[in-house]
Amino acid sequence: MDLTKIEDAKTYVQKGIFPAAKKILEESGVHYPLTFVFATQMRGAPLGDPDVIAIPFGTGEFSEAQREGYSAYIRHVIAETKAVGVVMITAAWVSTIDIDTPGVAPRPSEAPNREEILAVFFEHRDGNVFWKAPIVRGSGVTTLGPFETMKWDQSLGRFANMMNKPRPPEAEA
């Protein structure tokens, strides 16, 4: 499998990462953020075939500063390893909003029409894909529904466009 080719990389995500994520979620009931970087070099030396580096975010609640630090670290790893792709997977709340209704929409986690999903964001140098799968909870059991490919034209936020963001400036001593 050649992870520099987007179709091979998508197959890797679907056949390797999806089943592992499903197992983690169904066994533990949670899925904390996890990022996979498809690296083409380590410490300045080419790898030949890309290697997949897993970077966990941790567990529990995360402050804005921790999220910003994780995002900066991922961008740094992408730049340092000359990555051809990055996958971010996390549980999330989503909801739909009526853009014609005035006012501020509630946070997805507080919206009456919310849905809990496992979100998989895949950015590759040759394109992006977003998959989601419903998380179903009931009777003390958590299951994951089938993954669905979603339209992904534009994303905003600290974890969007990771492949195209410049490396953050080095910390000053």
What does this structure look like?
The protein is α+β, with helices and mostly antiparallel strands. The chain has two helices and seven strands. It has helices at residues 6-28, 64-80; strands at residues 34-42, 45-56, 85-94, 115-124, 127-138, 141-144, 148-150. Strands 1, 2, 3, 4, 5, 6 and 7 form a seven-stranded antiparallel beta sheet that branches. The longest helix is centred in the first third of the chain and has 23 residues, at 6-28. It is globular and about 50 Å long. The termini are far apart. Residues 167-173 have low confidence and may be disordered.
List keywords for this structure.
single chain, 173 residues, 7-stranded antiparallel β-sheet, globular, disordered C terminus
Average pLDDT, all residues? 83
Share of residues in strands: 25-35%
Shape: globular
As a whole number of angstroms, the C-alpha radius of gyration is: 17 Å
> Biggest β-sheet: count, sense, barrel?
7 strands, antiparallel
| Tally of individual helices | 2
Alpha-beta classification: alpha+beta
What is the count of β-strands?
7
Helical fraction equals 10-25%
**What is the string of helix and strand elements?**
HEEHEEEEE
Residue stretches low in confidence (pLDDT < 50, at least 5 long) are: 167-173
